[in-house]
Amino acid sequence: MFNFEFYNPTRVIFGKGQIDKLHSQISKDAKVLILYGGGSVKKFGTLDMVKKSLKDRKIVEFGGIEPNPRYETLMKAVDIVKKEDIDFLLALGGGSVIDGTKFINLAANYTGNNKAELLTNPKAVASITKGLPIGTVLTLPATGSEMNMGAVVSYKSGKFPVFSPLSFPRFSILDPTITYTLPLTQVANGIVDTFIHTVEQYVTYPAEGRFQDRTAEGILQTLIEIGKKTIDNPKDYDARANLVWCATMGLNGLIGAGVPQDWTTHTMGHELTALFGIDHGKTLAILQPAIWSVRKDKKRDKLIQYAERVWGITEENDDLKIDLAIEKTREFFESLGIKTRLSDYGLTSDKIDLVVSNLENHGHTNISETGDLTLSISREILEKAM
């Protein structure tokens, strides 16, 4: 196991009716900026519940944070933070809203003239020494952003990750019941996103992280057990609660501590979303089976372990185990209503050059847990994903 530091200061407040505890988490004299996406938080009453719990505090609202939040939209909120002298940021939404709120916090406290530097220059992010407190009320289980220090922001033709300890939420309220009204495709995307977060920290190479492996395997097995169930029965509280908790635990740093990580699927998936507008979760379902098929030799030991422990595959032939595990993974994604081929989304092989070009432009020329996944291998993966 590698050396590591594990730090996570986020208080999780989990369960039915926990929005009522929101008022106890924010100072009574705070001026709160509530940030959200589209109209669903208004339509289904979630915004009203939040405002009721905040009682007499001064509240300002900023809506319209889009999926894959755009830099230009977020900068409008930065102006509000400064103009209104905001001292608490409350994200009401899923990963996009939470990610956007994290970036708004960093941009509002960055002294440089060009805020876009925060997307491309880690030194610019590291120069920020103070930020506003952030809280979240989660409405969509997927990204794990409610309990980590990462965010992804869209800018021009790319998606850019930004990491800062200042981005850890002070608290996150996770009430599975407020996710009941989500469109089923969003629930499916969230299941896939959580699944891929987990395997990208698990299906790498052996590192004697036994606790991390067993915990990752538990998350994966739970998702397989409850994935279709929570789509078919959205108001099954226990199924949805397990999804919410798996999504949070999948990317809060626990299962990735001290073990190698491979973010190839996300790196390539971000380019598909940026270029063609395919949902983030769907890009991951397209790419993961293809990546494993191309990278069998590099991931052989862990793919065998994944086959045996997660899927219970007992065939004596290890090559067959790996192939069956990849196929079962694809079938699982398809069972959620998510197609797993680029061609399913109308893309043809002539688009591969564009994706490879974007990977090169964004510096993704040697990715994977071993840093040896070149552009030519990325091309092979995309061809396999057709």
SSE map:
Blueprint: E1 11-14, E2 31-35, H1 40-43, H2 46-54, E3 58-62, H3 71-83, E4 88-93, H4 95-108, H5 117-120, H6 122-126, E5 134-138, E6 150-155, E7 158-163, E8 171-174, H7 184-199, H8 210-232, H9 237-249, H10 264-276, H11 280-294, H12 300-309, H13 318-335, H14 352-361, H15 375-384
Parallel strand pairs: 1-8, 2-3, 2-4, 4-5, 5-8
Antiparallel strand pairs: 6-7
Helix pairs in contact: 3-4, 7-8, 7-9, 7-11, 8-9, 10-11, 10-14, 11-13, 11-15, 12-13, 14-15
Task: Give an overview in words.
The mean pLDDT is 97. With 386 residues, the protein is α/β, with parallel strands linked by helices. The strands form 2 sheets. The chain has a 6-stranded parallel beta sheet with strand order 1-8-5-4-2-3, with helices on both faces. Strands 6-7 form a two-stranded antiparallel ribbon. The chain is built from 15 helices and 8 strands. The chain is 46% helix and 11% strand. It has helices at 40-43, 46-54, 71-83, 95-108, 117-120, 122-126, 184-199, 210-232, 237-249, 264-276, 280-294, 300-309, 318-335, 352-361, 375-384, and strands spanning 11-14, 31-35, 58-62, 88-93, 134-138, 150-155, 158-163, 171-174. It has 2 domains: 11-178, Rossmann fold; 183-384, Dehydroquinate synthase-like, alpha domain, CATH 1.20.1090.10. It is globular and about 65 Å long.
Strand order of the largest sheet: 1-8-5-4-2-3
The biggest beta sheet reads:
6 strands, parallel
CATH topology of the largest domain: Dehydroquinate synthase-like, alpha domain
The SSE order reads: EEHHEHEHHHEEEEHHHHHHHHH
- Proportion of strand residues: 5-15%
Total strand segments? 8
